[in-house]
Amino acid sequence: MARPQMLKLPEVLKEIDMSRAAFYRMRARGKAPKLIKLPNGQIRCRRTDLDAWWSSMEDAAA
Hints:
Blueprint: E1 6-8, H1 9-16, H2 20-28, E2 36-37, E3 43-46, H3 47-61
């Protein structure tokens, strides 16, 4: 099954196993994956941005 190119915030939170509050705290510190706000106010994350964020977290932990 192909992964979606644009993930909804609940999908991102489930994948990284994090609460919404913790995610927004991390985002306020500039440490969260890049998000896109759509014209209708919904938030999405590109799969490529989330994958790049995962890689940066692995590099930082190494």
